[in-house]
Amino acid sequence: MKHFEANFDGLVGPTHNYAGLSFGNVASFNNAAMTSNPKAAAKQGLQKAKALADLGMVQGVLAPQERPDLYTLRRIGFTGSDTEVLHKASQQAPQLLNACCSASSMWTANAATVSPSADTRDGRVHFTPANLVDKLHRSIEPVTTGNILKATFNNERHFHHHQHLPEHASFGDEGAANHTRLCNDYGHSGIELFVYGQSATNPQMPKPTKFPARQTLEASQAVARLHQLDDESCVFMQQNPDVIDQGVFHNDVISVGNQNVLFYHEQAFLDTEAKFAEIRQKMNSEVHFIKVATSQVSIDDAVRSYLFNTQVITLPNGEMAIIAPTDCQENPAVHQYLTELVTLGTPIKQVKYFDVKQSMQNGGGPACLRLRVAMNEQEVAAVNQHTLMNEQLFTRLNTWVDKHYRDQLSAADLADPQLIIESRTALDELTQILKLGSVYQFQK
Ligand code: SUG
């Protein structure tokens, strides 16, 4: 049977904006209050997804969330009609309104952690939506994320959906951004590498001092238990707190894995050698650890360019390619590194650059925009086929974006009640295009 690694990219929602909501995420902070371009953002994402489908990859899309989130605004005490709720929030608590308008669900690397059937004891693909408790604007995502995942992977025989972890800092969970899977072949059982920023229960473990560590060891362990993974197939590794303090707010900003390759910065982890030895021993086969030294690329350049937020993919001919943001091309040290990398004899043979600047300006690169789901042929056939990218869906989604999305959005526009109508109309139509059923509260 054939096996694939599918990428499910988050569609950028109609309220894509820059609000400086993510403390510890340098780009989000630096671009706060800049005017955004929702239509361009959605199209940049679609271009990348279509290009991967054209390369012969299995590529899907995940629907965005309903924003403004009036349910959360009502839950925190704003009353009246939709227009009144929006107006009161914009007058009394503009920061809370901003949090309820973020299109942050586009970064589907944070939607969930996924374990393929080859690794799980019940032989199903497991999904746990991330609770994202560290950031208010993201903590309101997991329930709808669960609905969208169930409507996309809608077959109980093959897909096992869990509830998100308890909403408490002890279980801070940021999903696949802090999880990567190493294997020889997508269909063989592999090593699931969970990277955490801090322990909630062990005060001896080091922590960052400036920026938050969003993922806890306890959350990673809980996901591994839920997903029915054997101890022998898990490795838990701590992220270096010093790099979190330099803006590496998720592990996928400093390392990325694919099959038997782990591409990482030398400062990415703590206890690197011992943990790599554990990976080697548990993999029981060759692993290519591709280390980038600080002398080649500084942490600052890695964070600015998102060298490690690239997608390392295996093309149908078996060669690996790196899908990088154009920001890597524009950074001299990073561009030079990537140009050399493909000549070094590692499995990575080519680099392809994509302009995803609208997302990058909020700290989301190519890898943030996608959720990986390794599946066999039968599982791919069990996915909601209307969510899979092809020529027809690409054309349809571009037309849909043209019809419903604004060219520009500023912070002041978030208080415009027309945005509620535009967003709901767009999402209602999208659920028909993707045949998702009613996944949003306004549809219930
Ligand atoms: O959670 N940015 C997102 C970026 C997520 C990137 N994902 C991965 N690395 N996998 C975040 O910090 C910014 C929103 C704003 O400021 O408007 C934001 O949420």
How are the elements arranged and paired?
Elements: E1 3-10, H1 26-30, H2 38-54, E2 59-62, H3 70-75, H4 82-92, H5 94-99, E3 112-115, E4 125-129, H6 136-139, H7 142-152, E5 159-161, E6 179-182, E7 191-196, H8 217-226, E8 234-238, H9 241-244, E9 255-258, E10 261-265, H10 272-283, E11 288-292, H11 299-305, E12 311-314, E13 320-325, H12 326-330, H13 332-341, E14 348-354, H14 357-360, E15 370-376, H15 377-382, H16 391-404, H17 418-433
Helix pairs in contact: 2-16, 16-17
This protein binds N~2~-(3-carboxypropanoyl)-L-arginine (SUG).
Structural write-up:
With 444 residues, the protein is an alpha/beta fold. The chain has one domain: Succinylarginine dihydrolase (L-arginine/glycine Amidinotransferase, Chain A, 5-stranded Propeller), CATH 3.75.10. Helix content is 33%, strand content 17%. The chain has 17 helices and 15 strands.
